[in-house]
Specification:
Elements lengths: L5 H9 L2 E6 L5 H17 L4 E4 L28 E5 L17 E6 L10 E4 L6 H11 L6 H14 L10 H10 L6 H9 L3 H11 L3 E2 L4 E6 L1 H6 L4 H9 L10 E8 L2 E8 L5 H6 L3 E2 L3 E6 L2 H25 L1
Parallel strand pairs: 1-2, 1-3, 3-4, 4-5, 7-8
Antiparallel strand pairs: 6-7, 8-9, 9-11, 10-11
Helix pairs in contact: 2-3, 2-4, 3-4, 3-5
This protein binds manganese (II) ion (MN).
The site of manganese (II) ion (MN) has 6 residues, from loops.
Length: 324
């Protein structure tokens, strides 16, 4: 099933000025869809004014190549089209001024949490928002230049866990193949994404030694404010960077990284099988069925969440037993 791209293309064609937003703390898919769509619009509608706004991510700055986030005045939003990418909730959109725009359009692949934009293209069956943008380009027969292809391919790679997560399907490869008709330097993308600095390898090792398990085999780590300060990390970065260390452990089907700083406790929840999203939503977060995040105010709330995850693990183990 194809999402309805017609109204989205119409809105882009109608707009003179377009401002592209995505979620805060951009990951590869947020940056990739933003940069990819920027190039797509520029390459196909060169007369349009297009801007990208939002916070930056040093680790992924290679994705920007010669581009940067734009510093624009509020007045630019009058009669402009604001496009919101890869974001499920208004509070997560980087740069709140999208609200000032004359018209809004959103492309997203997260679990739907409520309407945000005038025109919504939402399909949670996609591994990435970049995949939706790639299909948008293909379906609308837009010209895809090397810049757009490279950015969109990078986002598909990062949000699919290098084509490994089970959201990866034949459409994912079809779109990757479509993008690869352009000139994409995959070796340099993979090098930029997966080369680690020695200090971060050592940091991961330190973190790995802190892994604990609950009664029903939920793996977790709780990194305190003091421990983070020692390593000069903020909580969301640490939780996101380290949660994957607990994937691929035999017998562990749910894992969660907690990291605490002055803004609260960042929680990154993952699962190989059951849906952990409702627990993340209950604690004010969101995301996907098997990968979600939230920030809670205290360690005791984080431990409440851990108990709920443990209960979920117990339930799923019972279900497995019944099936056997
Ligand atoms: Mn995404």
């Amino acid at each position: 099933m194809k999402p309805a791209f017609g109204p989205a293309l119409e809105a882009i064609k109608e707009a003179k000025r377009i401002i592209i937003h995505r979620h805060t703390r951009p990951d590869g898919d947020a940056y990739g869809s933003q940069i990819g769509l920027f190039h797509l619009i520029k390459d196909n509608f060169p007369q349009k004014e297009v801007y990208m706004v939002g916070d930056t991510n040093e680790r992924l700055s290679f994705m920007l190549h010669a581009l940067s986030m734009d510093d624009i005045p509020d007045s630019f939003y009058t009669n402009a089209l604001a496009i919101i990418l890869d974001t499920s909730a208004p509070t997560l959109i980087s740069d709140d001024r999208w609200r000032l725009a004359g018209k809004t359009l959103r492309f997203d692949h997260h679990i739907f949490m409520g309407r945000i934009a005038n025109i919504e293209v939402i399909d949670q069956s996609f591994e990435s928002c970049c995949g939706i943008i790639a299909l948008f380009a293909k379906s609308c027969k837009l010209k895809v230049g090397d810049g757009a292809a490279t950015a969109l391919f990078t986002g598909i790679v990062t949000d699919s866990g290098r084509f490994r997560y089970d959201s990866t399907n034949s459409r994912t490869f079809m779109l990757a193949s479509f993008l690869m008709k352009s000139n994409i330097d995959t070796a340099s993308i993979y090098k930029a994404l997966y080369t680690n600095e020695l200090y971060s390898v050592k940091l991961k090792a330190k973190f790995t030694l802190r892994i604990k398990t609950t009664k029903h085999n939920v793996a977790y780590t709780y990194t305190t404010k003091e421990e983070l300060e020692e390593d000069n990390l903020d909580a969301p970065t640490a939780a996101r960077a380290f949660v994957n260390v607990m994937g691929d452990i035999e017998g562990i089907e749910i894992w969660v990284a907690f990291a605490e700083d002055e803004n609260g406790v960042a929680c990154e929840l993952r699962s190989s099988d059951c849906n952990i999203n409702p627990i993340a939503v209950k604690y004010g977060g969101g995301g996907h069925a098997k990968a979600s995040g939230a920030t809670v105010n205290s360690q005791s709330l984080a431990m409440d969440m851990l108990r709920e995850l443990d209960a979920l693990a117990a339930l799923s183990q019972n279900d497995d037993r019944k099936e056997e």
